[in-house]
Amino acid sequence: DVLSLTRFSQVLLVGCRNNTIVTITPTRNISIPENPQLSDGIYLNISAGDSHTVILHELQSLLISTPYFDLSGTKIVSNHPLTVVGGHDCVQIPTEYDDCDPISTQIPPTVNWGKSFLLPPLTSRTNGQRYKIIASENNTIAEIKCGTNLAEITVLSNDGDIHQFDTNSDEYCTVLTSNPSYVAEYGFGHGYLSDGYGDPLLMTIPPLDQYIHSVTFSSFVTMLKNYYSILVPNDQYFNQTYLYNGFPFTPTWTTIYYPNGSIAGYGYSTEFKGTVTISHNNVNGQIAVIVYGFMPYGGYGYIAGMKLTPINSDVHLSEISFTKKEYYVGEGDGVIVVALERYEGITMSVSVIIKISSSKVATASK
């Protein structure tokens, strides 16, 4: 949503390991360095739908941007972990309201995307909020239910397709998708049906599968109003109470419904100040907490935490050939798969030693 050539939709890539091979397939025409390892000023024009491959090293960054158009749905594929941040340097939401602000959020890889989402409203914003769904696979069916309204069904025909929808200021919603998807929440600009506070903001909404037990977060001292929204699944661990700084608290929950009318979970939003720790009341329970705040012509929002567990069984991990005796795996790799193949007719003894820490060693033998 842009009105000026000086305002750019952006994707930032940051390498986590040396020699990371990155293939970029943009949804819009872009111009990027032909070789990020050289400072020769040579740029390559990539047309929408075409692919280009570059090499990034550890902590090396590459900024992809385009004016006028939205880069949502751009596909980034890498052979090693890669940090991806999506956003805009001065977005207008909606476009006809010239209250532009920078927005950004880190986007988890598709292996962490999910199919079930609870969506919180932005408390105190009289103009409501906007959500965006991005599909990871073709023919993804999305079902959306807000409050007690009838469910909306839409089909995202291709991987990378997006669907946006606006909701009322006090409505909690659910999204169910037939394939793993990504969901983001946006705040509107100051001038759009506003109460005098806020401006565009962007934050990732975690799927239910990536909820966590406890989070700690803080308010922004420069913001006049700071809020958090807690989302809790309707499961055997929910008992109407959560822990606020270690003490039980029973709020007035809002019931959140699945498209079929059954209860998906519960939500609660409130204003706060300072540093807060929110936990599920049951040691096995999981929650999500969204943090946000507003001032005249300003706003922020972020997710207080989420798991990054690989949950998509259709994702195939690359094969690794062992060419040396020792390998080191850094924090953040998530999953390590070691495959041992025994040649027929040959007796072999193989040991795999995984060093978890300097004081803990696990050994597997075959």
Task: Indicate the topology.
Blueprint: E1 8-15, E2 20-25, E3 30-33, E4 43-46, E5 52-56, E6 61-67, E7 75-78, E8 82-91, E9 101-106, E10 114-119, E11 129-135, E12 140-146, E13 152-156, E14 162-167, E15 173-187, E16 201-205, E17 214-218, E18 225-233, E19 242-244, E20 247-249, E21 254-257, E22 263-271, E23 275-280, E24 288-295, E25 298-303, E26 351-357, E27 360-365
Antiparallel strand pairs: 1-6, 1-8, 2-5, 2-7, 3-4, 8-9, 10-15, 11-14, 11-15, 12-13, 12-15, 15-16, 17-23, 18-22, 18-24, 19-20, 19-23, 21-22, 24-25, 26-27
Could you give a quick summary of the protein structure above?
This protein is mostly beta strands. It contains no helices and 27 strands.
Please, could you describe this protein's structure?
This protein is mainly β and 366 residues long. It has no helices and 27 strands. Strands 10, 11, 12, 13, 14, 15 and 16 form a seven-stranded antiparallel sheet that branches. A five-stranded antiparallel sheet has the order 21-22-18-24-25, with no helix packed on it. Strands 6-1-8-9 form a four-stranded antiparallel sheet, with no helix packed on it. A hairpin with a 5-residue loop joins strand 21 and strand 22 (263-271). The N and C termini lie far apart (57 Å).
